[in-house]
Amino acid sequence: MIMVPGHNCPGAFWDEVWVRMDREGIARLVFCDGSVEDAATFADLMNCGHVHPFCVFRDQELLALVWLTNLEGKMCRGHFCVFKKYWPESRHIGSFVRSSLLAQKYEDGSYCFDVLVGMIPKINARAVNVAKKAGFVYAGSIPFGAWIKERGVSVDMVVLAATRGEK
Fold first, then answer.
1. Pairing of strands 153-163, 137-148
2. What is the 3-state secondary structure (H, E, C) of 132-156?
3. Contact yes or no for 160/120 (Cβ under 8 A)
4. Is the model's pTM score more than 0.85?
5. What is each CA distance from 91 to 128, 132, 159, in whole angstroms?
6. In this structure, are strands 75-82 and 115-121 parallel, antiparallel, or unpaired?
């Protein structure tokens, strides 16, 4: 497996990724708040300056996508999408992404991140379990922190974190 930055991918690439996410029913899970509902909005999100996308490949096949937002100090929020064909490998892909991101260093040798934060609607138990199995630990919950547009309700948000383990 390799993880490559996606910040230079053309809009057409992101359009194809969106079509795949939408076809597999993943888009509505990942963007349950309704913030992204079409390919153009998704491509705009992946190409905006405050979003840092990475693509996970094996043998030139796209397995998963992760993008980082809310970078502050040595912390960021991670968003994760594994394509259905690879759901049985989600735990291993997630672990690979977690360890790869926490190992990233700047040119001066200092680590980019001390902590990755994941926030998942509690009703998405599969995603919460995958994150835990990939090395994220429960850090708390935010009551009514996740808007589920399709249902028209807010539900609790589970907050998970992964650290390098060094202080």
1. antiparallel
2. HHCCCEEEEEEEEEEEECCCCEEEE
3. yes
4. yes
5. 11, 8, 17
6. parallel
86-130 tens-digit pLDDT: 999 999 999 999 999 999 999 999 999 999 999 999 999 999 999
Q: Is-contact 69 35, C-beta < 8 A?
A: no
Nearest-5° Cα angle at 127, 66 to 76 = 40
d(CA 64, CA 68): 14
Distance (Å, rounded) from C-alpha 3 to C-alpha 1? Answer: 7
Tell me what percent of the chain is helix, strand and coil, each rounded to the nearest 5.
35, 40, 30
pLDDT in tens, 41-65: 999 999 999 999 999 999 999 999 9
Strand, coil or helix: 86: helix
Phi-psi map region of 127: left, alpha, beta (phi>0 left; psi -120 to 50 alpha): alpha
Which letter, b or e, does each residue of 55-86 get, where b requires 16 or more Cβ atoms within 10 Å of its Cβ?
bbeeeeeebbbbbbeeeeeeebebbbbbbeeb
Pairing of strands 75-82, 52-58: unpaired
